[in-house]
Design brief:
Blueprint: H1 15-25, E1 29-31, E2 38-40, H2 42-61, E3 65-66, E4 72-74, H3 75-78, H4 82-85, E5 94-98, E6 101-109, H5 114-124, E7 133-142, E8 157-167, H6 170-191, E9 197-200, E10 212-220, E11 224-235, H7 237-242, E12 245-247, E13 253-255, E14 257-264, H8 266-275, E15 292-296, H9 303-316, E16 322-324, H10 332-341, E17 346-350, H11 352-356, E18 359-364, E19 370-374, H12 378-403, E20 405-408, H13 411-419, E21 423-428, H14 432-440, E22 446-447, E23 450-451, E24 459-460, E25 467-468, E26 470-475
Parallel strand pairs: 3-7, 15-16, 15-17, 20-21
Antiparallel strand pairs: 1-2, 4-6, 5-6, 7-8, 8-14, 9-10, 9-23, 10-11, 11-14, 12-13, 17-18, 18-19, 21-26, 22-26, 24-25
Helix pairs in contact: 2-6
The chain binds ligand 86X.
Ligand 86X binds near residues 111, 232 and 261.
């Protein structure tokens, strides 16, 4: 079993090799013959299902309905709102033929579905009674990236949800943008145990079709910023391009206010990069497909009793995702390594000596800490431990981000901090022209976002010296 061999690369020395080994050996990803396209094996897909289930329920509570739109978008439709598509066209994959027959019009494989969805919105929305309209779809999209593809982080096909909504009033749309952003923040912080910063994207990083773009961002131990999810207020840009209008209470024709928002399977990659170590994955209990693994220490003369006790314990823990590893062809030590590699939060070991003492050995994946727990206490002790692991993973990540963040006052300090792979906090004008210059002279440092959680200040931009009223985070990024 190739996937059960240990990780030979170190996370902080040979980072990308480490990532490649972890995702394959832990059984998350299989490569295929198409560059940039990867198999999400059940162990990865189960994580995505947990995210789906959580988010799906939350948006349904807000009145969002799921739909499914076609994969193919006719070229003329994709290019209708040209402003937002212009920069992206090199990434679009096209279907040109059916069999040997050339199609009369090329069909894009959806890179995102604004155009096809808003063409339908313009048919469905007539009066204020048709609003708000809130739909979502879970699907895959294709963006033919040319930068080196990486599973989860930059794949040519990936899974996501895309939410698309239309409102009569701008204030309603504004409120939803932040509501959805809060849900994304919850996914990262509560499920993935990944601390994020909520904020607004700079002019340069705003989606071209949007009035403004908000995001959740984190900063990884390798020294790179990464966007977790985005929630856009599209204003009336698409409404005007696709003629999405309604008659208000006074019978006057108005354009709708729209939002779109999405989270992708990239989020799984962020979690892996945040928590993993030299032994492999470390999965937070709330998203782990297996939360507890039970490993029996088997000897011929005590096997029956030990297995029986393990099965009893498995039953006691049926509220959790438990796996009893009964395989006899592997040693306990081999199994420990394998489940560590797969990131299972808790390992329970039980042998004849433990049986005598009516106890079980419990080992945490995150700290490696081992303790003996009386079997009668496990129903009380296990949930405490799982919660503690969830919490400490978050706290450790948070401390890491904090220690990797530097506040600067000048561009000289800024460049030095970027070189040292830090997240940089700086008072900034937020202008596109300023960001372009920063990017050029730092080999690609970008703003992450402008955090919402800050007070307006009267200051000067660290780079151009123009008046600035807020700080932003910057970094090299994924
Ligand atoms: C931007 C905007 C938006 C719904 C989201 O961020 C969340 C979910 N959509 C997506 N975007 C594009 O519009 C786009 C368009 C084309 Cl044609 C493309 F090839 C790539 C794209 N990438 C991103």
């Amino acid at each position: 079993m190739a996937e059960t061999q240990g990780i030979t690369a170190k996370k902080d020395q040979d980072h990308s090799e480490w990532f490649t080994q972890v995702i394959q050996k832990a059984g998350l990803i299989e490569y295929t013959d198409v560059s940039g396209c990867y198999i999400l094996r059940p162990y990865a897909y189960e994580i995505w299902e947990t995210i789906q289930k959580y988010f799906d329920q939350k948006i349904k509570e807000k009145g969002v309905k799921n739909t499914y739109f076609p994969l193919f978008i006719p070229e003329s439709l994709l290019k209708k709102e040209s402003a937002h598509v212009a920069g992206f066209t090199p990434e679009v994959a096209w279907v040109t033929h059916a069999g040997e027959e050339k199609l009369s019009e090329r069909l894009a494989i959806r890179p995102t579905s604004e155009t096809i969805i808003y063409a339908a919105f313009s048919k469905w929305i007539r009066s204020h009674n048709d609003l708000p309209l809130k739909i979502n779809q879970w699907c895959s999209v294709v963006r033919w990236e040319f930068r080196n593809p990486t599973p989860f982080l930059r794949s040519r096909e990936f899974l996501w949800q895309e939410g698309h909504t239309a409102y009569a009033k701008k204030e309603e749309a504004d409120a939803e943008v932040l509501d959805i952003l809060d849900l994304y923040a919850e996914i990262f912080e509560e499920l993935y145990a990944v601390p994020i910063t909520k904020g607004q994207k700079s002019e340069k990083e705003t989606f071209a079709g949007a009035l403004y773009t908000t995001s959740v961002e984190t900063f990884l131990p390798v020294g790179k910023g990464i966007q977790g999810a985005t929630s856009h207020c599209l204003g009336q840009n698409f409404a005007k391009a696709f003629d999405i209008t309604f008659l208000d209470e006074k019978g006057e024709k108005q354009y709708v206010w729209q939002n779109s928002w999405g989270i992708t399977t990239r989020s799984i990659g962020m979690m892996i990069l945040m928590h993993g170590d030299d032994k492999g994955l470390i999965l937070p209990p709330r998203i782990a497909p297996i939360q507890i693994v039970i490993i029996p220490i088997l000897f011929d003369n005590t096997k029956k009793e030990v297995v029986k006790k393990c099965e009893e314990i498995e039953k006691k823990l049926k509220e959790y995702k438990v796996h009893f590893d009964e395989r006899e062809e592997y040693t306990p030590g081999f199994k420990y390594n394998e489940w560590e590699l797969k990131g299972v939060p808790l390992r329970l070991e039980l042998g004849p000596k433990d049986l005598e003492k009516k106890q079980i050995v419990v080992v945490r994946r995150d700290t490696g800490k081992k303790e003996f727990v009386l079997i009668k206490d496990i129903e009380q002790k296990i949930p405490e431990l799982l919660e503690d692991i969830q919490k400490s993973l978050f706290q450790k990540a948070e401390a890491g981000i904090k220690s990797n963040t530097i506040e600067v006052n000048s561009f000289t300090e800024f460049k030095k901090a970027i070189q040292n792979k830090k997240r940089v906090k700086a008072i900034w004008c937020t202008k596109e022209s300023c960001e372009e210059k920063i990017k050029e002279s730092t080999e690609g440092a970008k703003s992450l976002n402008i955090p919402f959680n800050q007070k307006k200040i009267k200051g000067k931009c660290f780079h151009c010296g123009e008046p600035a009223d807020s700080f932003a985070y910057f970094g090299k990024s994924y």
